[in-house]
Amino acid sequence: MPISISNTVTDESGRELLEYGTADFPIAFYNDNLDYVAVPWHWHPEFELILVTSGKERVHAGGQSFDVHAGEAYFINGSILHAAESLESSTTQHAMVFNAYVLGDEQSVYYLKYLQPLLTDEAKRVFHLKADGKWQSQAINNLETAWQAGSKDEPGCELKVRNCLSEIIWMILTHSSDQCIAESAAAIRDMERIKRMLSFLERHYDEPVTLEQIAESAAVCVSEALRCFRRTVNQTPIQFLKNMRLLKSADMLAGTDLPVYQIAEACGFQDMSYYAREFRKLKGCTPVEFRNRVRLL
Fold first, then answer.
1. Which helix (H) or strand (E) holds 44?
2. 27-33 and 3-4: which strand pairing?
3. 131 within 8 A of 71, measured Cβ to Cβ
4. The model's pTM
5. Which of 51, 127, 202, 281 could be disulfide-bonded to 75 (CB atoms 3.0-4.6 Å)?
6. How many helices (H) and strands (E) does the chain have?
7. Three-state SS for 235?
8. Do residues 146 and 292 both lie within one domain?
9. Where does a domain end: 155, 174, 193?
10. Alpha carbon distance 283, 250 (integer Å)
């Protein structure tokens, strides 16, 4: 299975639209440099395992934020809203996003006995895997072994990947108290509200949007919308919208030949000077420089 290119495309509810791997082996392997690849707030029904191979990144998931250093990894359960950002230049990661069917279909004992309970367990939504314990070190080694086998399409890679992932799932199931990041009832409620507000922003990011409209989309008052955003994503709704627009423009810069001004307008920016200034703040370069750098990769 060749390495895929990360590009987080979501539907109107923020759910990722990508299909991973193939119908008979639904898993994708990514080798990401977070200087150029954005991981905005999104969710998908698949499991996700990520090993930070260099640098450091901050992960937002499970109602909390935590830093993951090189050599550490993390697990995101299905349908969990999450995001990540680089804390150091040249932060890279090996990622796998896979459907539970890689390990067993819905009628199998594997799914019914192990996978379905994990998918529905509120206490096992996010795991931070540190290389300071025997089982966690083994899980990280299995993650990298699976990634290397699958990304390089080694002979028998499907068996190697399935075996390694099965062992990781078993470790997570049997070590629920170790490095598990549980969500409170309030955090789960906030996540559902954020999903509804994110849905609204996905539909209208290219239009003028007010704070009142964002709040109305989740049937909450403005003050509750502000509190929910600050507690969950550590931004105001308007700041979040601006960054959403900037990240969408970055995707268009990398994936199209449209002029910069057309991209800015398509993403909701009417003032080119403001757009260029905010883009530089986020990416550390101008839009044109960003496009040139990405195309050299």
1. none
2. parallel
3. yes
4. 0.79
5. 127
6. 11, 10
7. coil
8. no
9. 174
10. 9
